[in-house]
TrEMBL record, chain B:
Pfam families listed in its UniProt record: NADHdh
Molecular-function GO term, any one: NADH dehydrogenase (quinone) (non-electrogenic) activity
Location of this chain's protein in the cell: Cell membrane; Membrane
Entry superkingdom: Bacteria
InterPro entries given in the database record: NADH_UbQ_OxRdtase_su1/FPO, NADH_UbQ_OxRdtase_su1_CS
Species of the source: Thauera mechernichensis
Function text: NDH-1 shuttles electrons from NADH, via FMN and iron-sulfur (Fe-S) centers, to quinones in the respiratory chain. The immediate electron acceptor for the enzyme in this species is believed to be ubiquinone. Couples the redox reaction to proton translocation (for every two electrons transferred, four hydrogen ions are translocated across the cytoplasmic membrane), and thus conserves the redox energy in a proton gradient. This subunit may bind ubiquinone.
Main location: membrane
Record PANTHER family: NADH DEHYDROGENASE SUBUNIT 1 (PTHR11432), NADH-UBIQUINONE OXIDOREDUCTASE CHAIN 1 (PTHR11432:SF3)
Protein name: NADH-quinone oxidoreductase subunit H
Amino acid sequence: MEFKTFVFYFLAVIMVLAALRVITARNPVHAALFLVLTFFNAGGIWLLLEAEFLAIVLVMVYVGAVMVLFLFVVMMLDINLDRIREGFWSYLPVGALVGILMLVEMVMVLGGSYFGLEAMPAPAAAAESYSNTRELGRVLYTDYVYPFELASLVLLVAMVAAVALTLRKRKGLKSIPPSEQVAVKREGRVELVKMQAEKED
Amino acid sequence: MEAMLQPIADFFGPSWIAIWTLVKIIAIIAPLMICVAYLTLAERKVIGYMQVRIGPNRVGPKGLLQPLADGVKLLFKEIIVPSGSNKGLFILGPILALAPSLAAWAVIPFDDGLVLANVNAGLLFILAITSLEVYGVIVAGWASNSKYPFLGAMRASAQMVSYEVSMGFALICVLLISASLNLSDIVTSQGAGRFADMGLGFLSWNWLPLFPMFVVYLISGIAETNRAPFDVVEGEAEVVAGHMVEYSGMTFALFFLAEYANMILVSILTSILFLGGWLSPVGFLPDGFHWLALKTAAILFIFLWARATFPRFRYDHIMRLGWKVFIPVTLVWVFVVAVWMMSPLSIWS
């Protein structure tokens, strides 16, 4: 077996098993950590496909930032497993429908005559000096700069909206704004007074 | 070298590449671990002298065997797993803390061509791997099933995620002016320029045109490694030792190793990105690994110096510094550098 094939199966097996554990693990923190493992292995497989920029960004954004906050929330929630299990049978038809749809799509992509390996052959091997990051950057900031900027604006609006929805001003808090605190000068706090020495006589 | 190793390579056949890479990995990790051990001694000595004490001087000549004694002590201590903890994750936590700080060394260039993996996207790789460091702290804090570790873990995740952003922007400036993500190329690009031609190489390095970024990167690096004065994660006066409260023996030692390995990593990265890596500061001296080692040691000294000098920041002040000071400064400077590069005044061609 070629070394590359071995690496692919190694990553793929771990990834599929971890993905299975995401939905079967009883403990939500375990499930979130298995999702981290899944993402990490997906990054490895993308590296094999010579898409190093996507692979590294997947690890950086999803594993390094999104999942950290996700884990943060899951750890603090008091999740009652029995209550979640109650709705299992009523949600099953919808879930099964989504699952079957995804299965059909995958079969179409992998085995169908429209999207199969014959219709879409693998791209030619890239040259030695080919840099995935450079190529992506070039395309993103020249040909697709308008959609790219639009997408970033949409994200910004979503961010501002999320902050605006959750920002509450509570009255009666005793905390001091740190920006005022670090701006304090000695003159504002201590006053040196020149006075005659007090003498007892 | 290649010809000398050929007979051994033939003996091992196709598995030779794996074995040879393993040998290289050990050649990086083993000296690193010795550096970590002696960094702990250096820290105690430096802080000792700064506080007009002598520091450890009992074990071996001048106390030089102290790290070995500490290591042996930690190795032979019992590892206590709290009965209410999540056992698997409790053991996994320290491993998750140490692994990324070692993995990041794969792309660090020590000299011209002396690098384990000369990856094109080396800088991105470093960013991705170091962003995994926070998992060790979070997993350890949660698996301990105890209040202080959990508080420490929450502080850690908020702090490390915040300072990663400003570090990332500082790196974007470096990437802009060197037009490469490859760490070796970043170093070589600092060796060219008007001052380098005059024999004053140290004025051509990135620290001068990117001075605000250099400062931001250094301070964010201290915050990212949870070192004093940003050490609220373990803050012994507030949360006793944060995520490490329940750990003993070797499991505790792994956190310790990870922290110091991270310090060395951030220092060597600062030297590579801003201080010209292995390049010599003046024209008449040859380049070489010793310059990189010297620069890294100098930045490590700043880490220790800061610890002995500043009182611990309060948590809301740390957050304000990260989000309201560093991120605006770095954002503006990315813009300034981009405009500078496009203007006729550009010093990078």
